[in-house]
Design a protein that fits this description.
two-stranded antiparallel sheet; Rossmann fold; 23% strand; 29% helix; alpha/beta
């Protein structure tokens, strides 16, 4: 992923933010392309681990995962220990066995609310996928199909409440936009040390409807 190499190099050069780890959050509205971008960034970082917040949330606790993230992931990493967290099975509606997460130089946390106020003190950088809510949600609904329309109705209401009470975008260090030909990122509202310029990705990506 040569196009993300400059960003990956900047992130690797940051001082650790959570014990020995540089914790990077990728936040944005549901359907904005967070998981696809996080996967591409992780590859550019040489295989950095990615924690998906969907693994820590549940049907009944869409946004009440902060305690699990702290106890199972960021707490151990802050002590230089291997984290162990259980992933929620959205079909079986239960958590599976714990999986290990060593304190790698860079760890990515991806999901709606990854840049929430309770998480930000441990972040090295907060990246926001800069796609507005209506377009992101429409893309997510197309991706998931009509069978998930009921879930999406409940989700969008919950997401609106969350960001009204605890917004992430105003604190973003970088705003990331996805286009058919790749990504463009620019300094976000909270950025003070980033170069005042955009960096454009040059590779061809799948159509937006095929990305997470």
């Amino acid at each position: 992923m040569e196009h993300l190499d400059p960003l990956a190099a900047q992130l690797r050069a940051l001082p650790p933010s959570c014990g020995p780890v540089r914790l990077i959050a990728v936040d944005g509205h549901a359907g904005s392309g967070k998981s696809t971008f996080a996967a591409r960034l992780a590859a550019a970082l040489g295989g950095a681990p990615v924690v998906h917040l969907d693994d820590l949330a549940t049907h009944d606790e869409l946004f009440e995962w902060t305690g699990r993230l702290r106890e199972q992931v960021t707490g151990p990493l802050s002590r230089g220990e291997t984290a162990r967290y259980a992933s929620y099975d959205w079909t079986l509606r239960r958590f599976g066995p714990p999986r290990p997460l060593p304190p790698a130089p860079v760890v990515i946390i991806e999901g709606v609310g990854a840049g929430r106020s309770a998480v930000r003190p441990g972040l090295a950088r907060l990246l926001w996928m800069d796609l507005d809510a209506p377009r992101a949600w429409a893309r997510g609904r197309r991706r998931d199909g009509t069978a998930q329309s009921g879930f999406w109705d409940g989700w969008t209401a919950a997401e609106m409440r969350h960001f009204a009470e605890d917004p992430s975008r105003p604190y973003a260090d970088l705003l990331v936009e996805q286009f058919q030909e790749g990504y463009v990122w620019r300094p976000g509202p909270a950025a003070t040390a980033w170069p005042d310029q955009s960096v454009t990705a040059r590779d061809r990506l799948p159509p937006p409807s095929e990305t997470a």
